[in-house]
Each structure stands twice: as structure tokens, then as C-alpha cells.
Design goal:
Length: 241
Amino acid sequence: MSTSNPISLDQIVLGSQLPALPQSAMRLLQLSQDPENGPAEFAVPIESDPGLAGQVLRFVNSSYFGFAREISSVRLALSLVGVRAIQNFTLWSAVFSVIPNPKCGALDVKVLWQDCLRRGLFSRSLGRRLKLKEAEDLFTAALLQDLAIPVLAKELKQRYAEVFDSAKNNDATLATQERAAFGWDHAEAGGKIAQHWNLPESITRMIQSHTSPLAELPDVTTRIVARSEEHTSELQSHSFI
């Protein structure tokens, strides 16, 4: 695997021509900056986007929440489930809608997202067990922690395929192989992309630090997201990210 010709991370992120997140998602992020905003304010951009409103209602009426009757109002959904849960659902739905699905060596984007979903569920469960108010943020950060991988695979093509395959074949972490080849890893790249999209600072921080040694992590939320892979990898024996 070649380590010559280092690539600027800023050049990758800025040159990848990432599409903007949907306006409805951006509006919800703006509303979240003011703690005085509640269900009535958050309902407006959701109701103005019929596709998003439908997604939110399907989410709230899923078996996960188990309501005895169907919820047909966005405002009622926000009141019952909580603004933070709906905002984060909208956020990761928006991110998934614009992330590429490239062909790159052994990379299987479907398996990647399945692994991240396990980590998200683990992180939220542990956050709730510890009674952390950020439990929903933990889910979102863990789910999005590898959002940079498909972007890097699309932009770097064969070079990234070599790094990805080397991690699998040498039983090494992808982050270790990335740092050896590029001087940075997908967590740092994910943080740059999250900043580019103006994602919440807390979620950006958890994405950016999830490959760091635990001793370097400043708080329990970043440590939970960083440990989520370790605690879920046994469920998927070929997970090596």
C-alpha cells in the first residue's frame, strides 16, 4: 500500500462537491439553537415538506415506539416522542439521502450502515441506562460516525480501496491504515464533513473523536460512541472498521 503523495483532508472535503442537506433539515438545526422552540415551531418545516412529514409519521408509528393508536399529526408526534428524537431522525435521514454508494474494493455500504445501526442502538441504550439527557444524540453520532467512508471511497477510488482491503486482509483497523496512508482517518474526515453541514457541535465532536484512544476522550458521551464498535463487533464477525 503506497504512502506517498499525501492528500490534504481539506482538499478532499472541499473538492468532493458534497450536496447540501435538505432545507427542512437545515431549518430544524437552526430551530434547535434556541431552547425556547418547541413542538409548534418544529412542526412548521416538517409539515411544509410532505415527504419528510410522511417519514416522520412512519417513524413514530413504527413498532419501536409501540403506540396503541396511530399518530396522524406531526405536532402530536413531536409532543409524544420529543423534539430531539424527531430532529435527529430527520438529520440522519437527510445525511443518508446525500451520501454516495460507491464501488470500492471490499466496501459494502449496506453492511457499513448495518454496523453503524448496531452501534447507534448500543450507544442510545447505554446512554438511557446511565440516564444521560444526550441519549438520542449518542444514537445519531454513532449511526453517522462512518459517514465519511463512502465519500472517501468515491473521491479516492483505487487508493482508498487499497487502504480498505489492507485493513481487512491484515486484521488491522481501518483508521490505522488510513493514518499510515494519508496522515488522517475517516473520523477526522467525518468531523470535517459534519462541520461543512453545520451539524450540532456535540454530534460533530463525537463523530470526529470516535477512533481516538479512550484516555484522550474528555467526557462520557464521546467514550460511549468510541466504545460502541468494540461492544457490537462480535455481532458481525467481518466488521473491522
